[in-house]
Every structure is written in structure tokens, then in C-alpha cells.
Write a structure and sequence with these properties.
Elements (H helix, E strand, L loop, with lengths): L2 H12 L3 H7 L10 E2 L6 E11 L4 H6 L8 E7 L9 H10 L4 E8 L2 H7 L3 E6 L15 H11 L3 E5 L2 E5 L6 H22 L5 H6 L7 H7 L4
Length: about 220
């Protein structure tokens, strides 16, 4: 199993939240303004990056024709003036027929009632009944800009839950980051243990970290004799 698969497997099996992943990234990685449409979904996977532009979703349809299974489809929007990028039809194609893991749109979507009723794993900025045109765009974004976005997002890892979306950049898909996830998970366990069973206040736990001076406790946590 390569390191990318190890990280995805660990996050999935331990249901590591976006909050914890962001902490492991040094409190970074959140996709601003993007929120879940439906509650209770937890998804993690490799990103397939696509884009819409010039008030058209032509490029989206073009890029998802033969999209691979089990990816998080991440859609960036350039020059669409707040129009919805797509709605139920494209979502159904991606999630049911192409077996995508989830959809993240850094922009608006339409068909809100249907998307809510279907309870699909979708994250976006908001809704707009006015959609993009399905005609070929005239003004494409600069090629260098598209390559910059593709290099940044395509092949990175997205973690999505009720709190939003966090992206693990490719440069962080390493053994050291996996160890950082282990540490964050262990720290969370300790913090709640000290709160629930030792009745410490949050200043003692989070700021002063009194548990670190409790040698017997830390030895037990590390399973040391």
C-alpha cells in the first residue's frame, strides 16, 4: 500500500474529522465558504479537479465524460457570475453512474430540493436557480492559471464532513504527515480523557498541558512498563 492509500485508509477507518486533519496540517487546508448540502456524510478520497468558466458548464461535461471511480470531484468556477454550475443531472451521473466518492463545488449549485431529497454527499458554497449555459465558452481562463490549479488540486486528498472540506496537498502526502495524524488522534483521546475522568479544566488541558507532567499517566498512554 502506497503512502497515499495509507493516509486515506487511516482517515476512513478512524473517521478522522476535518478538524483533526486541519490541525495536523498546522491549522490550514480548509476550502473557504464550502459547506455540506446534507448532514452526516463523511468522505475522503483523491481529488479529480475540473473547472467551469465563462458562465458555461460545457467544460465540466467535457471533463467528466469518462471520469474514474472513487474520486472526490472538485469543481472550480471562473467567471460564472454566481450562476449555478450544475444540479441533479450531473450529480446523479457522477455519484451513481460514475461512482464518484463525493462532489465539492467552489461555487453555486441548483436543484436544491432534489439534492436534499436524494441525500447525496455534496459540498458547495450555496444555491442559485439560475444556471450556467451549456454552450461552448468563448473566454477560457489563462492556461498557466489552469495548470497551476490542476497541479495544486488534482491528485491531492480531500476530507469532507459536516464541518466542511479540508485538502491535504500533495507535498503533505508523506509518512511524516501520517505520523502527525496519529499524534493528533492520540492527543484528542488524552484531552477528552483528562476532561471526562480527571475533571481538569480546559486551560489545564489545552494551554498548560498538565498531563505531560503526569509521568505515570503518560507512561500508560505510551504502553511503557
Amino acid at each position: 500500500m502506497n503512502i497515499k492509500d495509507k493516509i486515506i485508509d487511516y482517515i476512513k477507518k478512524n473517521r478522522v474529522s476535518t478538524t483533526e486533519v486541519a490541525d495536523a496540517l498546522g491549522k490550514t487546508g480548509a476550502v473557504e465558504k464550502v459547506k455540506p448540502i446534507n448532514k452526516g456524510h463523511f468522505k475522503v478520497g483523491i481529488i479529480k479537479w475540473v473547472f467551469a468558466c465563462d458562465e458555461s458548464n460545457w467544460t465540466v461535461h467535457e471533463q467528466i465524460k469518462d471520469i474514474e471511480e472513487s474520486h472526490i470531484v472538485f469543481v472550480d468556477v471562473f467567471g460564472c457570475g454566481g450562476r449555478a454550475v450544475f444540479g441533479e443531472l450531473v450529480s446523479k451521473y457522477l455519484l451513481l453512474y460514475r461512482q464518484s466518492e463525493g462532489i465539492v463545488v467552489r461555487g453555486n449549485m441548483r436543484d436544491a430540493a432534489s439534492l436534499l431529497r436524494q441525500n447525496w454527499p455534496i459540498w458547495c458554497e450555496g444555491f442559485n436557480p439560475v444556471g450556467c449555459f451549456n454552450t461552448k465558452p468563448i473566454a477560457l481562463p489563462d492556461k498557466a492559471l489552469l495548470e497551476q490549479y490542476r497541479e495544486k488540486y488534482d491528485g491531492s486528498i480531500a476530507v469532507c464532513d459536516d464541518c466542511g472540506v479540508v485538502i491535504i496537498p500533495k507535498e503533505n502526502i508523506t509518512e511524516s504527515f501520517l505520523k502527525a495524524l496519529y499524534r493528533i488522534e492520540s492527543q484528542e483521546d488524552i484531552w477528552f480523557d483528562r476532561l471526562d475522568h480527571y475533571k481538569e479544566n480546559t486551560f489545564d488541558i489545552v494551554c498548560d498541558k498538565k498531563y505531560l507532567s503526569d509521568k505515570d499517566y503518560m507512561r500508560r498512554e505510551k504502553n511503557e512498563p
